[in-house]
């Protein structure tokens, strides 16, 4: 039996209020899927704010996050030592 048939069969056995809950849940899953697919670039979110982030800025931020402030050394996978 296919997933669609199995879900439909079980859905039809539920009372109307529970069917509505299933519909709400499926719609929330759809929204998550659409939202996840639409995340390609954040540049459009700040284009009107005059924010200009260069690749050098990103590299510097990554170094700051992975460098130990006391020794300046970087451990494996960013672990500080």
Any overview of this molecule?
With 81 residues, the protein is mainly α. It has 2 domains: 1-40; 42-81, no CATH class. It has 4 helices and no strands. The radius of gyration is 24 Å and the shape is elongated. It starts with a helix and ends in a 15-residue tail after the last helix. The mean pLDDT is 79.
* Percent of residues in beta strands: under 5%
For the termini, the CA-CA separation is: 56 Å
Give the proportion of residues in helices: 55-70%
Number of strands: 0
Number of helices: 4
Q: Unreliable runs, pLDDT <50, ≥5 residues? A: none
Integer average pLDDT: 79
Largest sheet: none
Question: Pairing-aware structural class of the strands and helices?
Answer: mainly alpha
Count of discrete domains: 2
Question: What is the CA-based Rg, rounded?
Answer: 24 Å
Shape category: elongated
Order of helices and strands: HHHH
Write a concise keyword list for the protein shown above.
single chain, 81 residues, mainly alpha, 2 domains, 60% helix, elongated
Quick overview:
With 81 residues, the protein is mainly α. The chain has helices at 3-13, 16-37, 43-46, 55-66. The mean pLDDT is 79.
List the helices and strands and how they pair.
Elements lengths: L2 H11 L2 H22 L5 H4 L8 H12 L15
């Amino acid at each position: 039996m296919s997933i669609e048939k199995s879900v439909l069969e079980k859905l039809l056995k539920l009372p109307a209020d529970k069917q509505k809950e299933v519909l709400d849940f499926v719609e929330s899953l759809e929204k998550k899927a659409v939202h996840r697919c639409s995340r390609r670039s954040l540049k459009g979110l700040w284009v009107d704010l005059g924010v200009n982030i260069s690749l050098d800025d990103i590299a510097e931020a990554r170094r700051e996050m992975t460098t130990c402030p006391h020794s300046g050394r970087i451990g494996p996978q960013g672990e500080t030592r």
